[in-house]
Amino acid sequence: MRTFLNAQDLGGLRQALAEAAEIKKDRYKYVDLGRNMTALLVFFNNSLRTRLSTQKAAQNLGMNVIVLDVNAGAWKLETKRGVVMDGDKSEHLLEAIPVMGCYCDVIGIRSFAGLKDREYDYAETVYWQFVRHSGRPVFAMETATVHPLQAFADLITIDETPVPGKRKKVVMSWAPHPRSLPQAVPNSFAQWMLAAANEPDGIDGGLDFVITQPHGYELDPQFVGGARIEYDQMKAFEGADFIYAKNWSCPGVTNPQDYGKVLGDYHDYLSWTVGERQMAMTNNAHFMHCLPVRRNMIVTDDVIEAPTSLVIPEAANREISATVVIKRMVEELKAGR
Amino acid sequence: MRTFLNAQDLGGLRQALAEAAEIKKDRYKYVDLGRNMTALLVFFNNSLRTRLSTQKAAQNLGMNVIVLDVNAGAWKLETKRGVVMDGDKSEHLLEAIPVMGCYCDVIGIRSFAGLKDREYDYAETVYWQFVRHSGRPVFAMETATVHPLQAFADLITIDETPVPGKRKKVVMSWAPHPRSLPQAVPNSFAQWMLAAANEPDGIDGGLDFVITQPHGYELDPQFVGGARIEYDQMKAFEGADFIYAKNWSCPGVTNPQDYGKVLGDYHDYLSWTVGERQMAMTNNAHFMHCLPVRRNMIVTDDVIEAPTSLVIPEAANREISATVVIKRMVEELKAGR
Amino acid sequence: MRTFLNAQDLGGLRQALAEAAEIKKDRYKYVDLGRNMTALLVFFNNSLRTRLSTQKAAQNLGMNVIVLDVNAGAWKLETKRGVVMDGDKSEHLLEAIPVMGCYCDVIGIRSFAGLKDREYDYAETVYWQFVRHSGRPVFAMETATVHPLQAFADLITIDETPVPGKRKKVVMSWAPHPRSLPQAVPNSFAQWMLAAANEPDGIDGGLDFVITQPHGYELDPQFVGGARIEYDQMKAFEGADFIYAKNWSCPGVTNPQDYGKVLGDYHDYLSWTVGERQMAMTNNAHFMHCLPVRRNMIVTDDVIEAPTSLVIPEAANREISATVVIKRMVEELKAGR
Predict the structure, then answer these.
(1) Cβ contacts of residue B50 below 8 Å, gap of 6+?
(2) Residue B123 DSSP label
(3) B120 and chain C: CB distance < 8 Å anywhere?
């Protein structure tokens, strides 16, 4: 595995979930695998969960870890050829990225969407620059359009949580937020749920996936193609086993000029806040969120604090998903593939 | 040991000092104890000595170390239930702290007093939030009211420094400073000296402890209860073996509205600067300070540079005190207590 | 080896190059040498290559690494005795540096030239304060006047790159830049090239070294004494095997009042930008630069991207040069010298 952006990069999810369960039973089982290897974690944006869990994951594998914080403002890389670099950019990516590759074996990249230029964001420009120029396997620690370590952790969490029925119904619900947020988390969650639903035995008993959101917030078909969308939140929640709440700004699929915007006044959408009223429609569903979460905007205190809430187990599984992903990359490096 | 705030948390000081001596003889004696365990060090405030010495201590025990710098300004945690989080706080402590606990085995916290709200500071609100919600043993790396790793290092330093007489006289002296400083260091130093004085054989030969300070700077009785206070600095210094200088702002014990203030103009207190005049009263005393120290405000160049000055040995013993404390926590975790 | 500032600190370069080749063949050959030892890397200035490569080097040797970022603005050390410290400086170097020495075995220092006070910069004031007061071996990670880890990496790169003729001709060329840059890199490169040229067998087949630059940019004789200077860039490039481009500000050797300045308008010097025109004069020379490099100011896109360009191999060799240097320091510590 040389890249990790999408569910498909892992190959079969059943096998990946089995590896996750093995790591979870003994986090240091592969502590000798990564000895004398170095993971470089490059952060262009802030991080709490990802920073801690990914460091821990690499250390679980016995690797040395180097964390590099790149202040997006201070470190402006020139990306075009032919430019006379007499301004505020003091380095070209064609030098900076290969150099980073010199001092490590695998690279993790955090680089958020700017939410100004849809084409630039959705091309995953920064991520692919690292893949092309570093010479190393590169995994996403939330990039412009995806957050696969989160989605994999969420899948692990759903997989290990039993429900009364045989088939699991998972509902991803948009929820209000005062600021513009990227689509990385919902894009990945949808992609992974659809992949698990489509894989025979991807989830024990099978999985139904539904998205509920206000009109205008349609996600990019490359991630949600084939997903059922239900614009009536209450109806979507009927019989659900898992409610995955998340805000996202306008993906700009139908109206590109709205890309990255909060549509309308968020106060008008407060009925979407997940509370007792909606949860009453479900099959005593488990509440999920990737965190950080704004309480009483995304979800009420009561719902997030309920015994069925899975927000902390999801976060704990970030260590597991990252350990599996880095382990895969290290194994392939050692096999010389 | 699940918490480390107070001298009492270590149990008997004699035993703790014996462990310190053992570690000092061979810093890596327990390098296999903490293998495949992680210490998370969370800094809400700047740090030089604590950052370096505590990392070194955890590495002495073979642990992985993750350092998290939390910009107090940027990371505002909501702490109340029921608040609609539509402002500048993007995460609630009820999520943030359990998440941090997911990725580590022990946690160290640095969180200074704000010096605005005495009740909030003296309740050690941030520290106890971590204890309650992280699920991990938590040790103070200077919190609002205490700095026990420093006080333990100071006790080690006093214990290992012979004096001509049998009984050691230790004087803690307030000294002037242009800015408002917390009471954490003097609170802990007093608490630890009193504990050592009260413990049979706590210090070989016994220990007398005296505090000298201007009127209005009385420390909280929970830390200094039972200590002798002598408002005449020259008289306090008579026959002293150790002079521990430190500035602190008004603890607000008698006048709560003065909490955190510099009383009067500090220029009027420059006679309190520890110099040759005062040291001449002592029994050729050793000068001590926790550092950083402002020279010629707290102490003159000549006194801090004298061969009897212990400021560097005190700092060096920070590694030792932290190693003992983390070792205790790891031992209890492994024993399943 | 207690200090590492100059080529002479390594003793014979031939032996150092042999050690570099050994490390390069097996980077972890000495992974047990530094076990239970700590390298402290102190950065007073930003760093990408040095930060990553030096961490990697210490980890190659099995050491624990502690990185300390010192914001030059926030951490102002008082350096004079007798000053009443009632201003913005909260610590004296006579305490701060010995304390840092307490928690480590070797120290690396990055501290750039201020380019305001030639005497202060050229005395290497900060570096020697660390040597005098830390009690530890100290190596330069680019200081005010030298960057020996870079120059050693450059020497390794030249040594391992075969050329058609027997004798290698190396040309260091000044190039234009819009801002004032220190002289550390050219000082060290010149010093190391001259040392290699003067050492019998320093470089297989021998080495000729030429500096080309506009009038007024003469480097300090302590570094370039004995070097041939050719003010006509085209003539200097004739028959060259290696072109080492670099900007530097006025060293102030002839006119001390010009120290640290960009002389004239840099637009008037754009003919010095290394391009095809100049490279055509050479013996199909390899292009070199320490990075970061401003393209189309220092060098054209075509030249830096040519297959003969060595900028990435130079950067990769930074790991090797740092491993050799730290290894030498650790070996001497263990031998008790």
Answers:
(1) B110, B141, B142, B149, B318
(2) T
(3) no
What DSSP line would sit under B17-34, residue for residue?
A: HHHHHHHHH-TTTTTTTT
d(CA C208, CA B82): 76
Contacts of A56 in chain B (CB under 8 A): 38, 64, 66, 103-104
Put simply, the answer to whether C291 touches A36 (Cβ < 8 Å) is: no
Which of B103-112, C62-71, C186-195 is the least confident region?
A: C62-71
Q: What number is the average pLDDT over the span B64-80?
A: 78
Residue given tokens 């699940």 in the structure block: B2
Is any Cβ of chain A less than 8 angstroms from the Cβ of B71? no
* B56 contacts C64? CB cut-off 8 A: yes
Instruction: Determine the Cα–Cα distance for residues C325 and A228; give it in Å rounded to an integer.
Output: 61
Using an 8 Å CB-CB cutoff, list chain A residues near B82.
296, 301
Lowest mean pLDDT among B151-165, C3-17, C61-75: C61-75
- Averaged confidence pLDDT in chain B: 95
Nearest CA to A44 among A137, A140, A150? A140
**HSE-CB for C36 with a 13 A CA cutoff:** 10
Alpha-helical segments (H) within chain C = 13-25, 49-60, 93-102, 118-122, 125-134, 148-160, 184-198, 221-224, 233-237, 276-279, 301-305, 311-334
How many C-alpha atoms does C105 have within 13 Å on its Cβ side?
A: 26
SS3 letters across A12-68: CHHHHHHHHHHHHHCCCCCCCCCCCCEEEEEECCCCCHHHHHHHHHHHHCCCEEEEE
Per-residue pLDDT tens digits for B234-282: 999 999 999 999 999 999 999 999 999 999 999 999 999 999 999 999 9
- Read off the tokens for B125: 């609100």
Q: Which residues of A touch B94 (CB under 8 A)?
A: 305
A206-223 residues labelled b (16+ CB within 10 A) or e (exposed): ebebbbbbbeebbbbeeb
Specify burial of residue B128 (Cβ count, 10 A radius: 0-12, 13-18, 19+): middle
Distance between CA atoms of residues C17 and C69, nearest Å: 31
HSE-CB at B184 with a 13 A cutoff on CA atoms is: 25
Task: Retrieve residue B320's tokens.
Answer: 């030792």
With beta carbons under 8 A apart, name residues in chain A contacting B103.
52-53, 55-56, 319
- Contact criterion met (CB below 8 Å) for A309 and A337: no
With a cut of 70, which residues of chain A have pLDDT below it? 71-75, 337
**How far is Cα C191 from Cα C195, in angstroms, rounded to an integer?**
6
CB-CB under 8 Å, A84 with C311: no
ipTM: 0.94
Instruction: Give the bridge partners for B283, in sequence order.
Output: none
The answer to whether B173 and B274 are in contact (CB under 8 A) is yes
CA distance B79 to chain C (A): 30
